[in-house]
Amino acid sequence: MAIRNIVKEGDGILGKKCRPVEKFDRRLHILLDDMAETLADANGAGLAAPQVGVLRRVFIMDFGDGKGVIEAVNPRIVERRGKQEDVEGCLSSPGEYGITRRPRRVKMVAQDRFGKEFTFEGEDLSARCVCHEYDHLDGILFKQHVVRMLDPEDLA
Ligand code: ZN
Questions:
Q1: Is 133 among the catalytic positions?
Q2: pLDDT tier at 156, thresholds 50, 70, 90
Q3: Which residue blocks in 7-147 are alpha helix, DSSP H?
Q4: Which of 46, 56, 114, 121 could be disulfide-bonded to 61 (CB atoms 3.0-4.6 Å)?
Q5: pTM score, two decimals?
Q6: How far apart are CA 82 and CA 146, in angstroms?
Q7: Count of CB atoms within 10 A of residue 109's CB?
Q8: Can you tell me the distance from the alpha carbon of 24 to that of 29, in angstroms, rounded to the nearest whole number?
Q9: Residue 27: CB partners within 8 Å, gap ≥ 6?
């Protein structure tokens, strides 16, 4: 495993649409393992493949709840319910935070690293994270959902 470089906002790769994964091979597994190590090193909740320079429909999430890393390949959000507003940031925009408006609950269907389909239901933080990471696959950054950016003093 290896820690990969996280692409920062301003790099054009973050504005691109990612292609579906077709091969569930060793290469994909190495990508997922490296992303997990990169996410842990950065202390984040989610990381999408384009953030490590790979334009494929893959993201991972880890909420530090002991349940480990959730790997989503070729995800689709099939249901969005309710609304929430909360603080959001992005590993590609270090030190910047804003209040975003997101659905309170989402249902996602995705494939695991072997191509097996599964359903994930997210609420509050995990719903926000699914929406945020999913957006990365379509070249959308969280600032497009921000109602209000926060000043650094707001966070102290
Ligand atoms: Zn992000």
A1: yes
A2: low
A3: 26-42, 125-137
A4: 46
A5: 0.96
A6: 17
A7: 15
A8: 8
A9: none
